[in-house]
């Protein structure tokens, strides 16, 4: 592909999530000049300049945004309306891709003036190319648009399309917020390691390597987590003692309640920002 044959991608907001996608695209060989970022916060612009040489970054929206085939919304949901007001007159012909939690396609179409909108819900492992992003497209989005979105997100990890926009609230609760649940469990396992006399570094290494290995085993074997758990659990052994303790404390139900609380919050955010 020649440099000029790459459709221009504009990012509104150049923070964590935008950086994860930009880093993936550059690593995959996309030229920096085929990207454009609007980032009003000067220290963040400096960080982008250090991390991504040659990346064109604007301090404010201007008419050059009109060249973008794809506009990626990567601001905090609370700042979307303000950011959209500054960009709408330049971006209304482009395909819109949002990574914002809770802002629904209707609100994005209205504020950007654009017809074609894809909402995505990525997660932070996108930073190392191991994320998973849920995707939802409105009816104006074409098959070619979907392919472009998949290409843009591919370097950050997997993608999964959902048919109902409301399913993105479940995706947000499960995989969007999910890395935090995992870190919470690792924190608790590491604390227990230290309580038993291991050092902080030893505890963390053992907990993280175990979780990474267990996830890789589950993914590669394709076997159910229940079967894999039962295979670790010897009758009358140590795992049985631990799982019995978790069950007595109602940890499984507590995790389910936590995920449903996140889904409820995702719905509330959607209602807040309008449909
Ligand atoms: N952090 C996470 O785990 C996930 C975050 N998200 C979503 O991604 C979005 C971005 O999150 P982060 O990258 O973590 O936030 P961030 O705060 O790192 O990045 C947002 C950037 O937008 C910039 N900004 C503020 N006002 C702007 C404007 N008017 N025009 C252009 N840029 C503006 C800020 O200066 C900041 O650099 C949020 O909507 C969040 O819901 C989605 C999935 C996971
Ligand atoms: O906590 C949040 O609202 C965002 C969405 C998913 C992860 N972080």
Automatic annotation (TrEMBL):
Alphabetical keyword list: Amino-acid biosynthesis, Cytoplasm, Membrane, NADP, Oxidoreductase, Proline biosynthesis, Transmembrane, Transmembrane helix
Pathway: Amino-acid biosynthesis; L-proline biosynthesis; L-proline from L-glutamate 5-semialdehyde: step 1/1
Record keyword Ubl conjugation present: no
Name of the protein in question: Pyrroline-5-carboxylate reductase
Domain Pyrroline-5-carboxylate reductase dimerisation: 165-269
Transmembrane segments: 6-26
A single GO molecular function term of this UniProt record: pyrroline-5-carboxylate reductase activity
Protein's gene: proC
């Amino acid at each position: 592909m020649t440099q000029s044959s790459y459709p221009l991608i504009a990012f509104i907001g150049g923070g964590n999530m935008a950086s994860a996608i930009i880093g993936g695209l550059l690593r995959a060989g996309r030229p920096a000049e085929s990207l454009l970022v609007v980032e009003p916060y000067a220290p963040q612009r400096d960080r982008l300049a250090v991390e991504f040489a040659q990346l064109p970054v604007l301090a404010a929206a201007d008419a050059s945004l009109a060249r973008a085939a794809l506009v990626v919304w990567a601001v905090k949901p609370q700042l979307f309306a303000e950011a959209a007001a500054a960009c709408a007159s330049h971006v209304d012909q482009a395909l819109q891709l949002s990574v914002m939690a809770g802002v629904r396609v209707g609100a994005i179409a209205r504020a950007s003036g654009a017809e074609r909108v894809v909402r995505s819900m990525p997660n932070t492992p996108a930073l190392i190319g191991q994320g998973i992003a849920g995707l939802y497209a409105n009816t104006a989005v074409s098959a070619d648009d979907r392919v472009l979105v998949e290409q843009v997100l591919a370097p950050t990890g997997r993608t999964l399309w959902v048919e109902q926009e409301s399913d993105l609230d479940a995706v947000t609760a499960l995989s969007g917020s999910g890395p935090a649940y995992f870190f919470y469990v690792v924190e608790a396992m590491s604390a227990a390691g230290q309580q038993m006399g291991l050092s902080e570094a030893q505890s963390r290494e053992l907990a993280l390597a175990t979780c990474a290995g267990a996830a890789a085993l589950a993914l590669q074997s394709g076997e159910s987590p229940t079967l894999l758990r039962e295979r670790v659990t010897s009758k009358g052994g140590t795992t049985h003692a631990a799982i019995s303790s978790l069950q007595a404390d109602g940890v499984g139900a507590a995790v389910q309640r936590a995920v449903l609380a996140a889904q409820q919050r995702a719905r509330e955010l959607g209602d807040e920002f309008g449909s």
